[in-house]
Design goal:
With 227 residues, the protein is of the alpha+beta class. Helix 1 crosses helix 3 and helix 3 crosses helix 4.
């Protein structure tokens, strides 16, 4: 009898965990992103006295951490400034001003290497870019006979094409369950198998350790009640 009660409790616990865990994890991620970004955006309120924006520490006003609602204000200011830059980038004079700023940054020793690299990476992942993740593929990795799911990024440099005498492509193979790191492999285009799944489904497949396939994801969507 005790075993039956324990088995029922365990089933109820894991059923509840399956419902609660995604919500808790989502909230944790949101808070982590907010406080991580606030480390940078808080500096936008440097012109406001710290006695107003920061808590007191050891009886000294303004020596403690910034109040969370001021961090939220700083984040909103950052979003507003980014939107203003976007407006400027879409008109002639603003575009010329941004080009002048880029040229100035690229002429600063040491800083030009960092700024140039970050700008190239940003352009590579921007929407509409040729190098952005658009296709989920399957390649032989880490050795023949095994398959890994990755993302087609771009064709490789012309020098590599000439020295390999093959049409090569770049494939990024993320690690699991953390897809932010991975391996960049150069694969002959003929050995790349393109998959029908979307990039979002490919990321879900990798993060879930393969437990969520595109079919199960679509099936789940069909089972959800229509609002």
């Amino acid at each position: 009898m005790k075993k039956d009660h324990f088995a029922q409790w365990r089933a109820n616990f894991f059923a509840g965990l399956a419902v609660v865990l995604p919500a808790v994890a989502s909230v944790v991620v949101i808070f982590w992103v907010f406080f991580t970004v606030s480390v940078v955006t808080d500096t936008l309120l440097i012109f406001i006295p710290r006695e107003i924006t920061h808590d007191s520490l050891a009886g000294e006003p303004g020596k403690g951490p910034m109040y969370w609602y001021w961090s939220l204000v700083a984040l909103l200011v950052a979003i507003l400034l980014t939107s203003v830059v976007g407006v400027l980038a879409r008109n002639y004079f603003g575009n010329k001003l941004i080009q002048w700023f880029d040229a100035s940054m690229l002429h600063v020793p040491i800083l030009n290497k960092i700024y140039g690299a970050i700008k190239q990476v940003n352009e590579a992942f921007s929407s509409g870019s040729k190098s952005s993740f658009k296709t989920v593929v399957m390649v032989e990795f880490p050795h023949p006979g095994m398959r890994s799911v990755g993302f087609l990024t771009s064709e490789v440099h012309e020098e590599i094409q000439k020295k390999t005498n093959e049409r090569m492509v770049c494939v990024f193979i993320p690690t699991t369950p953390n897809p932010t790191s991975g391996f960049l492999v150069l694969v002959p285009e003929s050995r790349v198998t393109k998959l029908e799944m979307s990039v979002a489904d490919g990321i879900k497949f990798i993060v879930s350790l393969g437990s969520i396939s595109p079919e199960s994801s679509h099936t789940l969507q069909q089972k959800l009640p229509i609002a």
